[in-house]
Amino acid sequence: MPNYIEGTEIKLRLRDRIFVDAEFYDGAKMEALEPHRLFPVSGLTRYISLMDAEGNAVCIIKNIDDLLPESRDAIASALGDIYMIPKITKVLNWEGKNGAHVWTAETSRGVAVIEITDSFNNIKRLYDDRVLIKDSSDNRYEIPDLKKLDSRSLRLIMPDI
């Protein structure tokens, strides 16, 4: 059973984009650990498991916000690459096509055309005003905060959300 880690009990250093090296408060060191969110939708910063090369959980970090700044930045960077989901910043166009809804949107990774065939099952509005979207090709997108979209974008997508 993995140990739960808090704040200063661990120091992390980024290694190879998606891995971190860890030094524990007792002096033990481990290299090339892969972080995974135990709750990838609701726990963006909480309950992060560090896995070894064999897929065993070495420890679970209760909250990365409690880590030292250098450690927090290292694990946040690794998680960002592992869970790379483009963020929708603006919706440029919306149209209905053959029962599907097609959005053209500005994202953190450029302009994307997002075809959604089942709005009910593939658009999830979460309690914190985040919206998760899965398109017809199983690509995933996120609106980090629905309230921060411009009014035109909101008007375009409100039938879907």
Can you tell me about this structure?
With 161 residues, the protein is α+β, with helices and mostly antiparallel strands. It folds into 2 domains: 80 residues; 70 residues, no CATH class. The protein has 3 helices and 12 strands. The strands form 3 sheets. Strands 1-6-5-4-3-2 form a 6-stranded mixed beta sheet, covered by helices on one side. Strands 7-8-9 form a 3-stranded antiparallel beta sheet. The longest helix is centred in the middle third of the chain and has 14 residues. The protein is elongated, with a radius of gyration of 19 Å.
Mean pLDDT: 92
The strand line-up of the biggest sheet is 1-6-5-4-3-2
Biggest sheet overview: 6 strands, mixed
Task: Give the class from helix and strand content and strand pairing.
Answer: alpha+beta
Cα end-to-end separation: 40 Å
Radius of gyration: 19 Å
Overall number of structural domains? 2
DSSP E strands, number: 12
Query: Count of DSSP helices?
Result: 3
The arrangement of helices and strands along the chain is: EEEEEEHEEEHEEEH
Strand content: over 45%
Spatial shape? elongated
**Uncertain runs:** none
Helix coverage percent of residues? 10-25%
